[in-house]
Amino acid sequence: LPSVKILATGGTIAGSAAKATDTTGYKAGAIGIQTLIDAVPQMKDYAEVSGEQVVSISSNNVTTEIRLKLANRVNELLADPKVDGVVITHGTDSIEETAYFLNLTVKSDKPVVLVGAMRPATAISADGPMNLLEAVQAAASPKMKGQGVTIIMNNRIGAARETTKFNTSNVDTFRAPEYGWLGVMSQAEPVFYRTTTRRHTTKSEFDVTGMTELPRVDIIYAVAGDDAKLAEAAVKAGAKGLVSASMGNCSIPNGQEAFYEPMMAKGFPVVLSEHVPTGECVLRPDAIKKGFISSGNLNPKKARLLLQLALTKTQDIKEIQRIFNEY
Ligand SMILES: NC(=O)C[C@H](N)C(=O)O
Fold first, then answer.
1. At which positions is substrate bound (predicted)?
2. How far apart are CA 73 and CA 210, in angstroms?
3. Of 181, 203, 225, which one is at a domain's C-terminal end?
4. Which of 2, 233, 314, 316 counts the most CB atoms within 10 A of its CB?
5. What number does the ligand 1 atom closest to the CA of 29 have?
C-alpha cells in the first residue's frame, strides 16, 4: 500500500462540541490526529497512514511562521522515497491560503491534499470523516501526480489557486468560480477533467528552506471615498508591500491612490487585487505608469502570500508583475 502522512493543524475537522446537535460554538482543533485516524479505519484499505500533530488551532490563527513550518516539513517528508503523499487537516477559514502557499513552496510532484470540515467531529452527520477518507484515497493515488496542491472536500478536487470559501456554515462551502474544479473523487479514485496552467510546486521559483519569517505585507480594503489612514498605519507597522482589496476592475478611491503614488515612485510595491469575487484586474495605462501591479484574478488573501514570496526574490516592480502573471 502507498504510504500517506497526515499533518494535522486543527480546525473544525478536529472540533469538539458539548452536544451532537451543536454545529456552532464548538472548540476547533480540540481532537488529536490519532483520534481522527482511529475514527476512519477504512483509510487503511487504501494507504499506510500515520499522523503528526503540527499545531492544534482554529485556522484563523495560522501564521506565516506556521505555514513556513508546514512547507519545510512537507518538503522533508516528500523527499523521502518511502512517503507517497501528504494530507493536511486544516480549518476551512484559511485552508485556501495555506494550500496556495504550499502550492508555491512545495518542491515535489507527489500529492499534497488539504482537507477540512464544516461540522465538528462530534456533530450528527459530521463531514470530516468522509472528507478525510477521500483526501487519503487521493493522496495515495498516482493520478494526483503533478496536479499541484489541492483542496478536497465534498468529493470535489479543487486547485489551491482557484478554490475559495463561499458560505460560512454550509458543508458545501467551497467553490472554484469561473474556472471550475480540477475533478472529483469517484468510487475512491480521483477523476480529472482539467489542469491548472499556472506555475506551482516543482515549477515554482520560490524556496523557503530554513526560513522562519517572510516580509510583512498588509491588505488594505478599498471602499468608496475612503482615505489612506489604514495604508499609512500598515507602512508604519513595517509593511514591505501592500495589497489593495480594490473595487470593480481594480478601482480605488482617490485618497488611497494619492498615498500610493509617491510610495510606488520610490519602488514600494502595491498590488491591486479585488474584493469583487471574480474577474481580471486590467490596469489602466496610467496606473501601470504609476507602478501599480495587477494580481490578475488572484484574490487579496492569496495575492498577499504571493507578494510575500516575491519579495524574498526581488523588489523590482516589473519582475513582481511577471510573477503575478505566471503563478
Ligand atoms: N470550518 C472550519 O474549519 C472553521 C474554523 N473556524 C477553522 O477555520 O478552523
1. 59, 92-93
2. 10
3. 203
4. 2
5. 9
